[in-house]
Automatic annotation (TrEMBL):
NCBIfam families: asp_kin_monofn, asp_kinases, PRK06635.1-2, PRK06635.1-4. Residues 264-347 form the ACT domain. Its EC number is 2.7.2.4. It is an enzyme of class 2 (transferase). Pathway: Amino-acid biosynthesis; L-threonine biosynthesis; L-threonine from L-aspartate: step 1/5; Amino-acid biosynthesis; L-methionine biosynthesis via de novo pathway; L-homoserine from L-aspartate: step 1/3; Amino-acid biosynthesis; L-lysine biosynthesis via DAP pathway; (S)-tetrahydrodipicolinate from L-aspartate: step 1/4. It comes from Oceanidesulfovibrio marinus. GO terms for molecular function: aspartate kinase activity. PANTHER family: ASPARTATE KINASE (PTHR21499), ASPARTOKINASE (PTHR21499:SF3). Belongs to the aspartokinase family. Keywords: Amino-acid biosynthesis, ATP-binding, Kinase, Lysine biosynthesis, Nucleotide-binding, Transferase. This is Aspartokinase. It catalyses: L-aspartate + ATP = 4-phospho-L-aspartate + ADP. InterPro entries: AceGlu_kinase-like_sf, ACT-like_dom_sf, ACT_Aspartokinase, ACT_dom, AKii-LysC-BS, Asp/Glu/Uridylate_kinase, Asp_kin_monofn, Asp_kinase.
Length: 409
């Protein structure tokens, strides 16, 4: 059985006209001889609408009930789309997370997939030409509904492709593939033909929401070829795949940005062993991810500790840090929401020097102050003021001449 997984995002299923385009893509795959597992997101804007509702009803929505609520968006999409397919004469059925079943842990709102019953799905595929699967949702040990975090339908799709040993996973969206940077922010962004898993992992981790991070982790782990392409054109898209030597030739392949950043500073904390653990231990215990950390030079036995967290975690982080500040006798706790992170990414950085220098010089030339820096062997990230975000992305894109096809591409 040749299986293809095709995932369609929110803008691709936004209304009947869009769903007709989706139908055409599915029918093309069927004509090519595939059994199709079609994974759908909620209609554009629906998950946000449901989250707003939850916050109107409750000051602290119960996480598991919130998952029951927001998982309904995908249920609507799969039911409506299956009706279209059945009207057109195809043997199709909808499949919700618990019917697959897609088992996850019980970390509501950002659950992790534990396993998928591929036998049951294969049996359903024997009896149908198309399975229309709800993305984003699963169920835990207690049969409670879970969701996989924002953008989680990408992960549902790649996980299903891995479980069913599909030929590939196609991710259909509103742009024609993975670009050198967000094409909606920078008109000079250039579409890439291929991207290495590690590079895509960094791009996604640094904020490029075209693929959810966990979907790329799955793809890499199970070696699933992922093709990102547009629902609304026939362009060839971008293949996310294993690294090969030619990819190393390109120093920088993309610029990513992340607005979901808040900067927190604990002022004048005592500079002694155990202080970092006293600050970051309770944050980690609360499941709050701390990104960049800077500890300043000590003055008279005291130092400032500055770090970034995601904006959605800020309120909880500040609550925890109020009591930590008292305990370690810090002098002040301040935060700043007007920051963002821009990152330069490329697997070729491993073998080339000078990338950081070029990036810093380019930002300096535009008078953009760099507040924090972090590096890995394939990326350089800078925290800057949010008002400079677009300028910084375009400036870095120009500095590395990413609009030009390099000879190795
Ligand atoms: P979907 O609803 O189909 O899942 P998303 O909105 O989650 O779509 O992801 C697609 C969006 O990702 C694009 O519209 C684009 O603005 C954004 N994006 C950010 N960085 C990139 C990039 N490097 N390449 C392509 N798209 C990007
Ligand atoms: N509907 C969910 C969201 O908006 C999942 C997805 O679209 O991938 O985050
Ligand atoms: Mg998405």
């Amino acid at each position: 059985m040749r299986i293809l997984v095709q995932k369609f995002g929110g803008t691709s299923v936004a209304d009947l006209t869009c769903m007709r385009q989706v139908q055409a893509k599915v029918e093309k795959a069927l004509a090519d001889g595939y059994k199709v597992v079609c994974v759908l997101s909620a209609m554009a804007g629906e998950t946000n609408r449901l989250l707003t509702l939850a916050r109107e009803w409750s000051s602290r929505p119960d996480p598991s009930e919130q998952d029951v609520l927001i998982a309904t968006g995908e249920q609507v999409s799969v039911a409506l789309f299956t009706m279209l397919l059945r009207d057109a004469g195809w043997k199709a059925r909808s499949v919700l997370g618990f019917q697959m079943p897609m088992h996850t842990d019980n970390d509501y709102g950002k659950a992790r997939i534990m396993n998928i019953d591929s036998d049951r799905l294969k049996q359903m595929l024997d009896e149908h030409e198309v399975l229309v699967a709800a993305g984003f949702q699963g169920c835990d040990e207690c049969q409670r509904i879970t969701t996989l975090g924002r953008g989680g339908s990408d992960t549902s799709a790649v996980a299903l492709a891995a479980a069913l040993e599909a030929e590939r996973c196609e991710i259909y969206t509103d742009v024609e593939g993975v670009y050198t940077t967000d094409p909606n922010l920078c008109s000079r962004a250039r579409k890439l033909d291929r991207v290495a898993y590690d590079e895509m992992l960094e791009m996604a981790s640094m904020g490029a929401k075209v693929l959810q991070i966990r979907s790329v982790e799955f793809a890499k782990k199970y070696n699933v070829p992922v093709l990102v392409r547009s629902t609304f054109s026939d362009a060839s898209g971008t293949l996310v795949t294993k690294e090969d030597p030619s990819m190393e030739e390109v120093k920088v392949s993309g610029i990513a940005y992340d607005k979901d950043q808040a900067r927190v500073t604990l002022r004048e904390v005592p500079d002694r062993p155990g202080v970092a653990a006293a600050i970051f231990g309770p944050l980690a215990d609360a499941g709050i991810l701390v990104d960049m950390i800077i500890q300043n030079v000590s003055r008279e036995g005291r130092t400032d500790m500055t770090f970034t967290v995601s904006r959605s975690d800020l309120e909880r982080a500040l609550e925890i840090l109020q009591s930590v500040a008292k305990e370690i006798e810090a002098n002040d706790l301040i935060h700043d929401l007007g920051v963002c992170k821009v990152s330069v990414i490329g697997v070729g950085m491993r073998n080339h020097s000078g990338v950081a220098g070029t990036a810093f010089r380019a930002l300096t030339a535009e008078n953009i102050n760099i507040m924090m820096i972090s590096t890995s062997e394939i990326k350089i990230s800078c925290v800057i003021e949010e008002k400079y975000l677009e300028l910084a992305v375009r400036t870095l894109h120009d500095a590395f001449e990413l609009d030009k096809q390099s000879a190795e591409d």
